[in-house]
Amino acid sequence: MTTSALPQNPIVLIPSRLASTRLPDKPLADIHGVPMIVHCLRRAREAGFARVAVACGDAAIAEAVRGAGGEAVMTDPNHPSGSDRIHEALVKLDPERRHDAVVNLQGDLPAIDPTVVSAALTPLGDAAIDIATLATPIVDSHEIDDPNVVKAVLSLEPGQTIGRALYFSRRPVPSGEGPLWHHIGIYAYRRAALERFVTLKPSPLEKREKLEQLRALENGMAIAAAVVDTLPLGVDTPADLERIRQVMAAQR
Q1: At residue 1, does pLDDT exceed 80?
Q2: pTM of the model
């Protein structure tokens, strides 16, 4: 890895929209007096990134972000994915092309450790890597066969903390002895990689596994994952929201 390959001026973009069947208006959910999306914005700032913005599919989100002193940009509410949303936001926010990389941070991780956010960028220290992401060892046995837990197949020697991603699956792969890796869906794209990715059509394995990142692999793009110790707590349901409120109350 050569540190000279690391992007010099990355931006964090948080795609966010209100449409959520399990938890309506999720980005605006109150967590100790602050909307969830604002907590996510603050965690990214604490990670040391100079510029963080929310790519909003709804005006109410932009209003909440701006009301908290954050940067927001409106995007087409009908985008099929977060990567399409952040691409539109990048074009609008940075027509001069000053930002050479984009960290796509999920808007439902209000308690994420800022060091985990910054770790997403580290695999881009290798000039051969187009897209970086994160993984953590699976320690709970129930996750092994849970199709909602995406497994990353990494080429990773013992002691290494960054490995090339060879595949992603909802099934427990690879077989044999050794760790299984829980994929964490935070991505860092080189700008050119994001621009290429959004032009690609959905690929056969992507449609089969329902995993967008396989589109990049099937088109020859290189993905690597940094291993972190912490699995961020996501919020998808009312029960998740109550749990995260309790966790964040304990941290105050």
Answers
A1: no
A2: 0.94
